[in-house]
Amino acid sequence: MNQGDERERPEETVITATDVLGTGFRADSGTRLPRERVLAEAEAALPVVVQALYADRLRVNGITEQDGRRFFSLTDDSARNLTVRLEAASLPERTVARSFVNTASDNHVVQLSDRIAPEQIGRALSHEVNELLAVRDRAERAEAPAAGDMLRRGAALPERPRLSDEDLGRVGELNYLTERMNDGTLTAPQRLEARGELSQLIDHTGLRVGAPPDDAAARTLEQYAVAIRTDTVGPHLTTDARRALRELGRPIDQLAPVDAQVLGEHRARVAEGRASGAPLGSAPALPLPGLHSDGTPIPRDQLVAARDEAARQRTDTGLRTLEQLRAEAAGLPEGRYPQREIMIGGGAALAGRDPDVLLVDSRGRWHVDPIKGIVQSADQVRHLREVGWDPYRFGDPKDRVSLAALQLWEDTAAAAGPLVDGRASLSLADDGRLLAEISPADGSPPVTVEVVGTPLVATGVPPEVVPGVNRQVPTMDEAARALTDHLGTVGTPEALHARDRLAALPEGEGRAAAALDILAEPAVADALRAAGDDSTAVRARETVEATAKWEQASAEAPGRVLLGDEVGDGAYDPTVADNWVIAGIGGGAIANTEIILEGNPNARVTMVGTAAPWVLHNDSQYLAMRRQYDAELGGDGRLVTVPNQRLGAVETVRTPDGGVRLKARDVEGDAYVACLGRVARLPQAADSLDAWARQSGGQVKGELLFDRSEQYLGYRLHFQAGDRQHTVDVTGAASRMLPGNVFSEKDMARLAVVDRRTAPPESGNVAAGFMATALQGSHLAKHRAEQSGNAPTARTGGAPPAAGAGSNPVAGAGTNPAAGTGTNPVAGAARLQSGRRPQGPGSAPGAGPATGGPTTPPRLPKPPQPGGGGGPAR
């Protein structure tokens, strides 16, 4: 397949080289082309690859541009339509390409490393296309992927050999390289290069014996493993590829001299690369949830029991930790506290949980949400296997992942080290020490610890806003500060008197209404009008008015005026009304609609708002729910959607019998749920530090954190006043919303681009969602491990370690993209031809290409029979 390899290249930007283990197929080619160039090369290559290798399965219909998206339209051999969008992106360490395969919507995204060598784009696409087809086929059969990869030298072989999605991607590469090796339109050097790469890939995939001829036992063992792999892979290879495997799959001592020389040089480069390469960072070892202590899988029908046991262990660990902290505090002088590294909040970020760090987490979100499962299917979050959380363990590929599974994963990770179920807030001691006051969830007295190092905050997204507030001054507290500041600058006696009365208003219900009374006084109203319609003071008044309406409606219709978070936290009664209005048509509105309709069989819901974002059309909840409940899509009519409406504050309507109904634009109901989004702000755990810095005449600065492969890890806050400074790292969903009073518009724009590539809307995921947060947590943990010099560690299926109170400070994440490392994904990517990457749950680690026998003997279905050693493909 001639893809124009000889075209003149534009000027390239040289970047720092990464480890190269004997092959040109790698994520970092040593240069970085403009992303537009990579994308153009990929768009030119995809039709060629499909026509040459997948014409019996796919037909490319051309490129479509729609609503700002540019994608390929294809048709499969069953006349089903699908789309594939190509993208160049900064991918995790040593990831050449990855795919987001959506078996619900059949809209897919293939991402190529923006450091890939142009001549390797076709090979990467062949890998991804074959893997995409494999995932689709497997989903149609409701079949989970193989637990581990077979096509990797030293990999354990299952009792029933079966190729993984990744293996089938490698098959796509084998077929592609064979096609190029035989392509008469290429030059002789190009065909020779393809032949060498094919031979290298055969070595990497364990399709060739590597043991020396004088080690008969090792060679016999390997011959049998090679035979099993060859027999398993054979039906998926093209006729030419099977022929090439018979020729090139011989041991090195049986190859033609030229081929043997190429392979020997390759193996030497692999050995040299491993000897000289710096070890990759690794997340701390954690027990793998979903497995018994002996490593065998927990059956699906035992999920609830396993979840409950993990919850019990988490509770017990939390109680032990509290006892240890209180006992230690009792032995310290007054004003001194136990010293601990600390992580505040958890959720999906627990995928990177450090078992030496004190975790304070309230068991919120997925532990209290009454929804039946997250809105993504197992296929849509298949990359969770990279962190050891297997979404296929307890459900079929197209099934939404159950909350019981998420609770099992999170509780198992939480109990891997010291923890307190509760909340924590950061503050300063009189001498400037950073403290964390912990409020246990059991209602017992607070506990204070002195924070060691940089605390990590992962407390999730900020609260939802009240309808009608001004987004620039979204809360009553911010509005009150803005108004008092403005009145102070006016300086008249009336303005100063109003300022003092506003500042003295107690928090809680009634504050907004009382503030409006003050603002309505003629002298005060004149002062606000003089500020101008676009002033902060006028925007603050909008927020006060909207808050007053919200509080009034809440008082007149108790239990029937709710924020979406209250429904999502289960803090409501679904039977309080049968006619519901939901303000908003975003992800939160959709989720809460499902919760209400399932919680009250008599409920009818009307959603009012602008329009559902594109990502919702790709998840596993939105369209399925509409088909069930929305008459427009054939449902039972319990759901009505009123789009293209911009909403303001909640309104109340009096009924003839003196009752109260709630109104959003022209739609009335007996209950009202506001799901109108959130406004970025600092995590509440850092409020005290923010107030200290600003009130002391200091400042709060922020910086985005990336590892060396430019994976976003979160952001770092610097609180500074005088000669004192404290830092706080924020990760997880909270890190996806940058506070406007700390970060620049440039930072926000950069993060928006990163977020779209982290979670393409076609995937059905969002950057603040479960999968993206778990992967981010893993990246951060690996980055910190590398910064602290910790060697990689393997995950284990053993029992969780006992809770402890140890403290092992590690360096925080840096901002220099060259200072850290990323992750090595298990599925969905064409990678370096090196075996150094974690495997999915239930699989064993293995060695890469070697000159001698396998370092990890494969687990074989049966021992070799005397005289029956296998060989290359027949």
Structure in words:
The chain is α/β, with parallel strands linked by helices and 874 residues long. The protein folds into six domains: 16-144, no CATH class; 148-280 and 845-874, no CATH class; 300-452, no CATH class; 476-543; 561-674, FAD/NAD(P)-binding domain; 684-788, no CATH class. 34% of the residues lie in helices and 17% in strands. The protein is built from 20 helices and 28 strands. The protein has a ten-stranded mixed sheet with strand order 8-15-14-13-10-9-16-27-26-25. Strand 14 and strand 15 form a beta hairpin. Helix 2 crosses helix 3, helix 3 (165-181) runs antiparallel to helix 4 and helix 4 (188-204) crosses helix 7 (257-276). The chain is globular, with a radius of gyration of 30 Å. 51% of the residues are buried. The model is unreliable at 3-20 and 791-874 (pLDDT under 50).
Q: Proportion of β residues?
A: 15-25%
Sheet having the most strands: 10 strands, mixed
Beta strands, count: 28
Q: Helical element count?
A: 20
* Spatial order of strands in the largest sheet: 8-15-14-13-10-9-16-27-26-25
How confident is the prediction overall: mean pLDDT?
A: 86
Please give the radius of gyration in angstroms. 30 Å
Structural class: alpha/beta
Please state the overall shape, judged from the principal axes of the Cα atoms: globular
Quote the distance from N terminus to C terminus. Answer: 26 Å
Q: Portion of residues in helices?
A: 25-40%
Instruction: Give the total of domains.
Output: 6
Instruction: Flag low-confidence runs.
Output: 3-20, 791-874
